[in-house]
């Protein structure tokens, strides 16, 4: 059992309000006609357990959640791509949440990375039609 609520009647959004994709995605999610739990990672601390559950829900690694091109990441690690272990990736997200690569929408057991705010609209269209698509 995880720590993140996976209610089919509620949308949970992990986003950063300090970047444009996060702001726009939040606006799309808030406009949806469903209950919403929005977690702004620039204001709310997300635990390592939650980050790990998000990565697992998307069938990815914790490192896949980090934008290695983000200025904060580059300031710490330089311009070269780095290969960190899962614990170190968790520390990056915990200490520098602004490095989150994309907002994540959770509805039921579906974890959807939002690369572009319109991805949320596609997800909702698929969801309302009852279509099960892999988003991982």
By secondary-structure content and strand pairing, the structural class works out as alpha+beta
Q: Report the CATH superfamily.
A: Glutaredoxin
Q: If strands are numbered along the chain, what order do they take across the biggest sheet? A: 2-1-3-4
Q: How many strand segments?
A: 4
Order of helices and strands: EHEHHHEEH
The CATH architecture term is 3-Layer(aba) Sandwich
Molecular shape: globular
CATH class: Alpha Beta
Distance between the termini: 21 Å
* Mean of all residue-level pLDDT scores: 89
Low-pLDDT residue intervals, each spanning 5 or more residues: 131-136
Residue share in helix: 25-40%
Number of domains: 1
The description of the largest β-sheet is: 4 strands, mixed
Helices, by number, come to 5
Task: Indicate the proportion of strand residues.
Answer: 5-15%
Task: Give Rg in angstroms.
Answer: 15 Å
What does this structure look like?
The protein is of the alpha+beta class and 136 residues long. The chain has one domain: Glutaredoxin, CATH 3.40.30. It has five helices and four strands. The chain has a four-stranded mixed β-sheet, with helices on one face. It is globular and about 45 Å long. The two termini are 21 Å apart. The relative contact order is 0.20. The C terminus is likely disordered. InterPro entries: Arsenate_reductase-like (IPR006660), Thioredoxin-like_sf (IPR036249).
């Amino acid at each position: 059992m995880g720590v993140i609520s996976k209610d089919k009647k509620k949308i949970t959004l992990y986003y950063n309000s300090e970047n444009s994709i996060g702001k726009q995605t939040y606006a799309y999610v808030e406009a949806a006609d469903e209950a919403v739990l929005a977690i702004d990672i620039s204001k709310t601390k997300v635990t390592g357990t939650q980050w790990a559950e998000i990565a697992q829900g998307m069938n990815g690694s914790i490192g896949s959640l980090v934008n290695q091109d983000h200025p904060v990441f580059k300031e710490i690690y330089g311009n070269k791509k780095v290969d960190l272990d899962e614990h170190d990736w968790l520390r990056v997200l915990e200490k520098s949440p602004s490095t989150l690569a994309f907002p994540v929408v959770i509805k039921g057991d579906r974890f959807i990375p939002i690369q572009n705010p319109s991805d949320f609209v596609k997800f909702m269209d698929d969801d309302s039609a009852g279509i099960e698509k892999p988003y991982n």
